[in-house]
Each structure stands twice: as C-alpha cells, then as structure tokens.
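Hello forum,

I keep getting stuck at the same step: I have a sequence, I want structure tokens, and every attempt I make locally crashes halfway through. Rather than fight my setup again tonight, could one of you with a working pipeline run this one for me? It's a single chain of 474 residues.
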Amino acid sequence: MAQRRSEPDVTVLVIACCALEPERVGELAVLPASGSSQILGRGGDGDEPRVRFFRPRPGQLEAAAALASPGLSRRQLEVRTGPGGVEVRRVGQCPMRVNGVECDSAFIQPGDTLRFRQELVLLCARRAARLAPLRHFDLAAAGRFGEADVAGILGESPSVWALRERIAFAAKASAHVLLVGESGTGKELAARAVHRFSARAGRPLVARNAATLPSGLIDAELFGNVRNYPNPGMTDRPGIIGQADGGFLFLDEIGELPAEMQSHLLRVLDAGGEYQRLGEANARRSDFRLLAATNRDPAELKHDLVARLTVRVEMPPLSERPEDIPLLMRHLILRASEKSPEVAARFVERRGEGAASVRVDTQLVDELLRRDYPGNTRELEGILWEAMGSSDGDILVGSGAAGSGPRASEPAPARSQHSSSRPRNPDPSEDEIRQALARENGNVARAANALGLSSRYALYRLMAKLGIEGETGD
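Reply #2:
Ran it on my machine without issues. Output:
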C-alpha cells in the first residue's frame, strides 16, 4: 500500500547537522526551478531570492526560521538548479566541502553532501516536498518533528511516513501480516507498532524467533502438549499459539522454519484458529493474529503460507531514507546515554526544559551520510558505539570504522573548477528491468543483482513504480 502523493519528487537540500540550532535537523529546502538561482546564508533579509527551509509532514508544510549560524555569511552559497543536478557556488567566507573535498563550486546530485566547517551539513536529496494527508495513521501519534513517534518509529522521510501508513492499516485490518525487509530495518519494532495501534493493544503480544524453536519440538512449542507427551518427562505446556489467544503472535525469521513446519501452521491460520495440543484429543481454538517477519524473498516461503499472510508491510532500508540518518544518529546516542551514561552521556547536551541535543563533529555526520549500510540501523548503531569508544573529548568524532564503508572510504570530489564528480548509476529503465527478469526466469533477487541494485527490495519498488507485474512485495 503506497502512500498517496500530491506532488512529484523534487530536488531538496536537507539539514543534516546544524551546530547552533540542532533542533533543525530534518528540515528541507526545495531548490529553485531549473535555470533560476537562490542565495543560501545566515538571516533572511535582502532583495535576492533566498533558500528557505520547511518542516514537511503529511498535509502540512511548516515554514522554518532563517538560518542563524554566525559562522555563515549572509550570502554564503549561490544555488542554481540545472538538468540532472544542482550548481552550487561559494560566495561567502566560510569554506565549503562537497563530499569531503574542499572546493569553491560544484555540480551536485542526490546523495551528495555540503559541509561548512562545524556550522552546517546539508544533504542533497530527491523526494516529495509535500506529503499527502494520511488515511490511517493518526498524525497526533507522531509527536514533535524529528523525534520518534509513540511506537518508537523515527523518521521524517516519505518512506517512513509510508511505513507508518502501512502499519496503521495493518493494525486496523483483521488479517494476518507479513513484515518484509532487510536485516536491521526494524521489523520487530514495526510488529510491536501494529499491536499498539490495533484494537487488541490490551491483549498479549507473544514474540518468538522462529530460528530458535528447538528442532523436534516445534509442534510442542507452537501448539502445546499434555504432560509426558510426546516424550516422558515433558511438562504440560499451553503453546505460544494458545498464549496469544485474543492478541498477536509475532514469529520473527519465519523463513527459518522448515517447509514442513510451515505447513503445520496452515490449519490454525484459517478461519476459526483451530488447533490441537500434542497428546490431546479435543480441538482448541485461538483467536490470534499472526505477525510473521522475514528478511528473505517472500517467494522463498511456502506459497500457501504466504497466501494466508494477506497484509504485507515492507520495511524501507536506510539506502531509501538517507535524510533520516542524522535523526537516527541523535536518537541512538540519546538512547545510549540513558542506558550507558558513563560511556555516552558526555556527548549529550541538555538546555533547560528543551529537548536534549548531541554533540557530533560535522565531519562524522558528513562521512556517515555517504556510507552504505548493508546492516541498516543496526550497523549505524555499531559505528556510533565504536566512535563513542574512540572519542576523547565531549564531541563525538569519527573512528576508523566511520569511514570504512564503500562510499565513505575514498570521498570523491564534486565537479568544480578543481575536480570532477564521482559517477552515479541511474535507476535501470523499464526495458532493462524486463530483460533482466526474463534472463533470470522471473527471479527478483538474481535480477536485482544483475542490475546492480542494492537489494531485491529496491527492484520490487521500481517494478511497482513502473507497473511491471510480478511479485512486487506490495
């Protein structure tokens, strides 16, 4: 279920770090139409057209104040949109780095970064500036801009707002749910959000990792057993399906269940929820909803099991939501400071009754924006822990791991009077996708690899966007 959009994607600059005004992280500026230019800098006065920042939320576009960073000039940067990218030219005193390389002018594209000393980091992105009003998610549950919602989900990108919509829809539905996404994208968090927003929120959520169910005892774990059956000495147990009666059963990594055991779930997932404990003659019923999660291609699951998981929630990877990385950084550091204050509290600043902010070196933010994350949020968290361990002062700086990713290890300069831009691979065309699928006999994972995409989920989204039929994961 895709989120409705009222406007097409546009090129934007997103505030990724603002030392003097940390609460502004996540704000964006829509860049001018092709051929026209604007000035970005401190303050908002002057007769020239100026870059202005906004806080976009579904159905809302709140104007933000002008930048107040004293280290920026009032006329710091000239921005001109052109075919395929944006020309930027430094006109103020503060030096500029594009993708980590100092220059006075450059041609940037989505994914590139601009850094002005310790004052400001901007990310160039391509996204919808205005998000359509929501159908299912209650905006009041989102909390303040840039912070986690009541279910703990964090992000202001269109991908995360679409995720909230899918979760809210799944919560209201009566069907079983399949959560699909790469490792580290937060499938368990999404499952708990479905439970929280549902009419069953006051009932149990029983969670188990299917990969940890003991071989030979999976039926007993799922359905329960009477005492001494199937083996002497076994205790009487209700089974996790019985425990979930009236609520939800969350089975993580359901793809790790052997195919024959997946078949054992089919009857209980049908209407009525009928099942039998091992060694018991009478049938029981459990009124539960199954939340199943996997990082595998859904086509690898038993097809008749997938057919019963009729609502699907797809988790976006970090590669689809880079503008959320600075927000996640702040959230993870604040959480670390609460759980391990002796390690992380020195990087946190609290100003009166206002929200806490984190002290992070702009170079680290710049590097992490240009890094790939195969492990998604879990990998980002690991990098931050390494940085906390290697930082000597009260500002979080980069460790060896921070720049070890394939994008950040050798920051390439942008096109300028001194250097040339790093190459970028555009999305494959519809013909290229169809040809790749045909060569791979419809195998989405292999076709994605052949096309050079980051994952099969990236191909699913392109297929849905282009109207290519197949297992798109929607």
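The longest strand covers residues 9-18. If your local run keeps crashing, start a new thread with the error log.
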